[in-house]
Amino acid sequence: MDYENAGYLLHVCCAPCASASIERLLERGEQVALFYSNSNIFPYEEYVRRMEEVKRLSQIYSLPLFIDEYDHDAWLTHIKGFETEPEKGRRCSLCFSYSLRQTQQKAQELGIPRFSTTLTISPHKRSPQIFSEADPFPGFVTDDFKKKGGFARSIELSETYELYRQSYCGCEFSIRTDKEQ
Ligand code: SF4
Q: What's residue 92's pLDDT?
C-alpha cells in the first residue's frame, strides 16, 4: 500500500506490540502506515534490534513504514528531573508525550489525518495516562489495543512470526526495574 492512501498513522514501539494492533486496525478497514519513533530506547543497539523487527513486520503486512531520527539526548533532556520516577510515573508521561508529539508532527507532514500508538497494548502501561498525554495533539484516536485480549493476541502473533520480545520497556531507567518484576 502506498502511504498516500493512508488514513491512520500508527506509532510503533516494537514489533510484538504492533502485531495485534495492526491486525485490529486492518480488520476495522483502516488504511495504516507505521511510524517507528523511539528515542527513549537505550542502548542504541537495542533500538536498532527492535527497528529491524518492525521492518520485518511491515513487510509481512505490506504496510509503509517511516523511521524517525534517533535522538536519545533530546529525550533525556525532555524527561530531565524525573529519571528516578517509578514506571507509570511522571517520567513515563513525559516519554509518552515525546513520542506522541513526534508522531503528530509526522502525521501532519504526511497529510495523514489520524494517529495513535501501540503503547496502549501493554499491560504495564495505563491507557488513560497515554490518552491524557495525547490530549494536546489533534488527530489522536483513543484506540486502546489492550482491550478484547489484545496483549494475548500480540504474544500469539509474536510466536507465529518469531518476533524478538524484549525484557524491559526501553529506557535505561527501566532495565533494572523490569528485570526485577
Ligand atoms: S519505562 Fe518505558 S515508558 Fe517509561 S520512560 Fe522508560 S521507556 Fe518510557
A: 98
